[in-house]
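Below: protein 1.
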Amino acid sequence: MGKKGTIEILKMLRDRNKTQYKDLSTIDIAISTLSSRINELLRNGIIEHHLKRTDKKEEWYTLTEKGERTLEKIEEIEKIIDSN
């Protein structure tokens, strides 16, 4: 979880509904790094990928319950660090 961009990805997914890849690509990391982080988070059940095919293809990412709990713990740790 300490890998570059991971926390930023999780926070963006929490703060936005139906976060698309193009939104995540605004995070200040290389596109190859972003793709690696997304795949890692998907494999670990932290985020979900959604695909809806109608007249136009819709694709987005969301946090899973595990992802929400993980981000809560990360933010608790950040508060402890910031308070010292």
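Below: protein 2.
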Amino acid sequence: MVGQCMWSAAHLAMVGSTFNALTMALLVGHHLFACWNGDRRLLEEHGEAFEVVRERTSTVPFQAILEGRQKLPPDYYKELIRAPYALIAVGTLGAYFAHPYMQAGAALVKNTGLVEGGILDGLLG
């Protein structure tokens, strides 16, 4: 849910049209409904067992750990050194260091420019 909100905010800032604002609001609303409905369905199916799990977790990243409802095991870092995480870390760092080359290549492409009527018109127009 947090990721969907971040994704929607980034796309709204990039495009900035009222249509995009409505689309992002509906998309976030759809995900809110899905979270609520999923919790409702799991509560109906599992009852008290689901309540126990819901009380010790959170949809906000790391909130349950910061509030003391969960504890990380002493060897939690071993999860992060597995191959999929290493591949993502290498790819992310590679993309970071390749940005100057990507920007140089993008400068060679004809840009469509700012979408007129967007929320960024006043700042960048």
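The helical segments are 2-15, 18-46, 48-56, 63-66, 77-80, 83-107, 121-124.
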